[in-house]
Each structure stands twice: as C-alpha cells, then as structure tokens.
Amino acid sequence: GDPDSQSPVVYDNGVTYMFIQHNNVYLMTASRQNCNAASLLLFLHRVVD
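RESULT FIELD:
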C-alpha cells in the first residue's frame, strides 16, 4: 500500500516495528519487548535532526 497511509507502528510475529520516513529514507526500530512507541518515534525524529 501507500506508505503515507500506513501506521508508523506495526506488530508482527512478536516484534514491534516503528518507522519514520525522512526525504526518501526510512528509519526503523524493532523490539521484541514492551516499549514506549512515542519515545522511540521521538528518538528516530531526533536522529534525522
């Protein structure tokens, strides 16, 4: 599907994936543990700043 319409948080097979798009590059984190999605997304945004 269209990446703009997808949720930035995806759960699949016990793994939570979180991603952002900056220009034409995707940055992603993956976790098998319970994590704070907002904190990880904030971290990804700070990486590109």
